[in-house]
Amino acid sequence: MSRRGPKHFAKLAFMLSDADEPADTDMARFRDRVLAADSGDDLLALWRRRLTAWDFEQSPAWSATAPRTPERRAEVYDRLAFGADLRKALDAAAPVHTEAGPVTISREFRPWYTREQAANRSFYWTSYERLLRRKGWGDAAVSSLDEAAHAVVERLADPTRDESYGARGLVVGYVQSGKTANFTGVTAKAIDAGYRLVIVLGGTLNLLRGQTQRRLDMELIGQENILGAADPNDPDALIGIDYQDDEDWPAKFVSFGARPSQLGAFDIERLTSRDRDYTSLERGISALEFEKPNRTLPLHDPSNLHAARARVMVVKKNKTVLENLVKDLKKIGPILGEIPALIIDDESDQASVNTTDPKKWEAGKVTRTAINGQISKLLKLLPRAQYVGYTATPFANVFIDPGDEEDLFPRDFLISLPRPADYMGVQDFHDLDGADGVEGEAEKKHVRGIYDSTGDRLQEALDAFVLTGALKLHRERNGVPSGPFRHHTMLVHESVRMAEHAELADRIKAMWNNAAYTGPEGHARLEALFDRDFRVHADDSLPTPATYADLKPYVSGARRLINQGGSPVMVVNGESERDYAQPDLDFDRTPNVWKILVGGTKLSRGFTVEGLTISYYRRTTQQADTLMQMGRWFGFRPGYRDLVRLYIGREEQLGKGRAAKTVDLYEAFEAICRDEELFRAELARYAPLVDGRPQVTPAQIPPLVAQHLPWVKPSARNKMFNAELVEVRSPGTWVEPTAYPNTVDGLAHNTECWEPVLAALGQDSVRLSVGDGPEYEARVGTVSHGTLTRVLCDLRWTVPSQFSPHLEFLLEAGRQPDAIDDWLVITPLQTSAKRVEARILGHGPFALARRGRRRGSLFGALSEPKHRAAALRVAGALEMVGNTPVEQLARPRRGALLLYPVIESDPRLAPDGTVEPGDLVMAFSFVAPESSVGTGRPLVRFRTIDSGRQDSIVIDRDDAHS
Q1: pLDDT of residue 905 exceeding 50
Q2: What is the DSSP-derived secondary structure letter of residue 909?
Q3: pLDDT at 822
């Protein structure tokens, strides 16, 4: 039952028993025991854990099936030789988790970190795994973290290899989604495997660095390594030892029972502490001198490596701190080349990326920003150092110049972590599949727009903060675990200017003092808000009062907690550490932080606002990654997910004077979220190996995603990537171009190109539906594949590279036999009384859909979700059965295309109802049939721009061939 995979269980049980021969009764007793077990049974828990681990294992030697699939589970049962009744019982106890796992884009690497090796040296990982389970992590969550951390470590260089190599990688998570847990797991596995120096770059403030240090100390390094030789029962010996004033010490800090070195493992020496960043080595340079039992061999030789202590430090991204570290390392001498080191860069797109202008470099020599330069020096000093960046906003890292060998481009791997279970993220606040202008369920539940017509809604947001605090107290009284309710916070983010923060805080204090929460006026306001909002959207599985009268007794308790310390408001800003050293802001040491936090940039990145329930956001910015990092409302909200509200500006002014314009911040967030989701989806599509080799390497990611992100440019502006995306094969996948012309001539040209397709549409409408989904009216017609591709070839685009790889796929499919015969064109009709209809080029009438551009010339969502199912079913990409017209229209080699005549403003109509071609955007979406997939070909194809330099990742612009 090892990591080598499942074995014949009855035979294995016999081998481990004292019996002389196998007995059927033994297996029968085991079966009866499993069948009779209740959900809390220890045996069942053990099998749940084991089955889940086998389900999740990536590319095991014992199976060719995909992880997290019924096929993998069936193979496990076959190898165990379990019968149908046992399979049924175990499936009920441990269902197969089919959620997506981590997505990996990687260069080919030299395998070394096998599951067997990981199991043989797993002291710190095993301890960390036990701690996660004690914290309430389920089997699936632990196995998911195990697989993701294993995927990182196996792509690092073997710490015992003779020649040095420093891998560079990037791990992409979600904002406030538990990236620290992942790099703690990576650190545990890496030091178990032999890495002996770990440097964690933990933010730009001591507050953030201290948070990371405490987390690693508590969950990985443990009591015995913190205490060292100090006797925990001797008060004098504990003077100066970390965490003696921490309310979680020692109960919540991991313990091994003795010093790890006394248990056959190795100790960890901390070179930084909770309150002390790296300055210079207090104990002298000896702290970084590694002991070698065999001095004739290098440290990385196994006989030396596994006997050596590991050193761990958490340092902030500060020029002076990093300079001190570099100076100390230089004093150590040649042994630096023998140390297997791991550098983990938390929030790696902040401060670490070189942002200097290449045009200002002297004589072509790279000029580096302060932090980037120090990290580069660290990597040069430590030739065996592996660099792994962690971020939720990866574009700055992805667009680092990969031709700069001393920079931090993730040349070896990029791993996209799955969205964790119970994580409240993009999809909870934005209806990404909804049509523009239509309020979806996520928006109704959690988003409260601030318009000119609504006023600033700040008093309502304060009322919501009080109400949700009272609801948390009510739930705690009625049996909901109170842990997540320890802190209760509201975030107010209106401006980047500190002077305005103080003014806003004073205004909030005045509003709070005049809110009359103890009088009839205040209670009337709270009751109205409860009835129209929080009671309506409450989670039925959680206790919520039926009336405000039942909630009213808890309001005073919430108000009292918020008023603790004399003021309900805290300002969190500033450039110095003292601005953040507020006791009431310490979520680790303060029993209850129930406060309204007013701040700016410093509240946005890396800083976890615990218990955040109400967010009030009106700050404008044109920086996409900055905006995304301000989404502090993303995260885990156990027990109060339904109470989370986002008050956000929908009509905010950006800029001044003539350049000023009105922007919708919610819409801006959604646009960025779409880009993030597209990026992840693209990685997932191209991650599967073809003939055992990667389809895409990290160096090919920039041209892959540039078509979706026209506003992002490579950081090296005098360079271009030497790979151009030529073809994207997308059978069975929804493709929706958005880069339509924005000139009258361009729009008119495209409209006229569609004339043969419009002529093929029938006059009579049909009603289409799939499964239990909504039914809609549409005009339909069929055109040959050749007719459609001729139309598509003639279209004009504002960003041609967005659609050209898809067009190349369709043209290539036309050259293959039995790939695509024809296309069903669907033009949905509108039933609304306010619909606009018009004739187009003598055909019609057609319903005109109103849509708006989201990012420059690009539209947001164009197709409506209710229209897509029929198209997907016709193309064979959906198993759910449609109504009779849909099933009659479906063909094995038929694609489907949704055609929307779109208007952006009121159109010009002739007396006969004909619309001007230049007033129309002929928008379309399509899905190609599965028959177009072909065999043995990657989903993407690249062309080398300079064919004479095929191995070059980047080239000078002057070298590019036209």
Answers
A1: yes
A2: B
A3: 96
Parallel/antiparallel/unpaired status of strands 766-768 and 423-424? unpaired
Give the span between the Cα atoms of 698 and 410, in whole angstroms.
7
Element (H, E) at 253: none
pLDDT digits (tens, 9 = 90+) for 30-88: 888 888 888 778 888 889 999 999 999 988 889 989 999 999 999 999 999 999 988 99
| 3-state class (DSSP) for residue 447 | strand
Cβ atoms of 730 and 796 within 8 Å: the answer is no
User: Cα(904)–Cα(921) distance, rounded to whole angstroms?
Assistant: 8
265: nearest Cα among 188, 153, 367: 188
Q: Please answer whether residues 288 and 337 qualify as being in contact, where contact means their C-beta atoms are separated by less than 8 angstroms.
A: no
- 651's tokens: 């009509």
**Directed axis angle between helix 785-794 and helix 744-753, to 10°?**
170
Tokens representing 599? 């701040």
Q: Which residue from 800, 773, 791 is spatially nearest to 864, judged by alpha carbons? A: 773
Cα–Cα distance, 693 to 174 (Å, whole number): 28
pLDDT tens track for 428-480 = 888 877 655 567 889 999 999 999 999 999 999 999 999 999 999 999 999 99
Residue 76 to residue 415: CA distance in whole angstroms: 27
| pLDDT above 70 for 628 | no
Beta-sheet strands, E only, within 553-641:
569-572, 594-599, 612-617, 635-636
The helix (H) or strand (E) run that includes residue 764 is none
Give the burial string for 562-590 (b: 16+ CB within 10 Å, else e): beeeebbbbbbbeeeeebbebeebebeeb
Token output for 168: 């560079």
DSSP per-residue letters across 675-733: HHHHHHHHHHHH-S-BTTB-S--GGGHHHHHTTT-TT---S-TTEEESEEEEEE--BTS
Dist CA 386 CA 504 (whole Å):
45
Q: Are strands 385-391 and 940-944 parallel, antiparallel or unpaired?
A: unpaired
Give the per-residue SS3 of 168-192: EEEEECCCCCCHHHHHHHHHHHHHH
Pick the closest to residue 125 from 54, 184, 201 (CA basis).
184
Q: pLDDT digit string (tens) for 676-724?
A: 777 888 888 888 888 788 888 887 777 665 433 333 333 334 445 555 6
Number of Cβ atoms within 10 Å of the Cβ of 531:
12
Phi and psi at residue 776, to the nearest 5°: -145, 160
Q: What CA–CA distances, in Å, run from 418 to 144, 148, 677, 768, 856?
A: 9, 9, 11, 35, 30
Which positions ≥6 away from 163 have C-beta within 8 Å?
none
Distance in Å from the first CA to the final CA of the chain: 59
Contacts of 454 (CB under 8 A, 6+ apart): none
